[in-house]
């Protein structure tokens, strides 16, 4: 008993006293034996050895004693071959199951990120999908089964019953998981099995013309007024306002070019005389270098939070009850166009909607359209 204990202590002492170079040699030899045992071809073996040698140079200690956070930060930016090398290496070590699981997750997330870029999804969509799938993967101790949607169903129920998320937010998660199953897990048969929640339909909140006039009159800052006029007078989305450049305002054509709006589609909207006038004044006094609206940092567009704050401050100053974010001015733009006789197809083009069904919702909030409908009560002789 005594001799065995002494042997262990000496062995541990010897391992702890190894230099960085000695540590590297120990683990590289172990990797070489593993490659030979599993008959890995020479080309792949060379790639694996090079990747692990680089890893051990930066982490000169026993692999299972590397802090997990440091390990994750190291593996995340690696290319696919290097990640595969890490996976092969750690699978050959006992007691590192948590490290192996992290490599699997990183591998799947990297594959998802690659597919999202190939599809040319917007940066916002890429961030949202990656965030959703990352949380999904960390919600389970095991990797999701490509041949079953059980984990996806459990996760959707968790979002609904425990996190109490709105149906639209849950359906964004469903879309992200469907994309993940198809592109990262290569399981297209599971797409239809990822559940979606019925959302119902909520009507957009709009302002009256008097309220909009009151709102715009309350703002004296030319930059702030210009932003609000673009939201209402051209129906631009918040991000479209942020990314607007001087060359997008085409004075000779009396139009504004909206580049790469939702769905990566360009479109033109009308250049109202009021917007043209304030645009020229702003161009000569305060316009940004690269973007029309910049903050203190030059050539960087004004933040979403800043634009939202401009809108909420204007509502407060005008004494108007806010009915939503600045996007409600875009809804109001569409509704007022409809009330003044604009065709639905024209409004669809102005808004950049891919489907007329999306635009048709404004027929349900138009007060002028509602006024024209006669109630059956008026037919009664009372």
Report on the structure:
Residues 1-15 have low confidence and may be disordered. A hairpin with a 4-residue loop joins β1 (249-250) and β2 (255-258). Helices cover 58% and strands 3% of the residues. A three-stranded antiparallel beta sheet has the order 1-2-3. The longest helix has 22 residues, at 97-118. The chain contains 18 helices and three strands. The protein has 382 residues and is mainly alpha-helical. The relative contact order is 0.06. The radius of gyration is 30 Å and the shape is elongated. It folds into three domains: 18-95, no CATH class; 113-193, Orthogonal Bundle (DNA polymerase, domain 1); 209-372, hpI Integrase, Chain A (Orthogonal Bundle). The N and C termini lie far apart (108 Å).
Show the helix and strand layout.
Blueprint: H1 2-16, H2 20-37, H3 42-58, H4 68-75, H5 80-91, H6 97-118, H7 123-137, H8 150-162, H9 167-183, H10 209-217, H11 222-233, H12 238-242, E1 249-250, E2 255-258, E3 267-270, H13 273-283, H14 304-318, H15 327-339, H16 344-351, H17 356-359, H18 367-372
Antiparallel strand pairs: 1-2, 2-3
Helix pairs in contact: 2-3, 3-5, 4-6, 5-6, 6-7, 7-9, 8-9, 10-14, 11-13, 11-15
Brief rundown of the structure:
By secondary structure, the protein is mostly helical. It has helices spanning 2-16, 20-37, 42-58, 68-75, 80-91, 97-118, 123-137, 150-162, 167-183, 209-217, 222-233, 238-242, 273-283, 304-318, 327-339, 344-351, 356-359, 367-372, and strands at 249-250, 255-258, 267-270. The protein has a three-stranded antiparallel beta sheet with strand order 1-2-3.
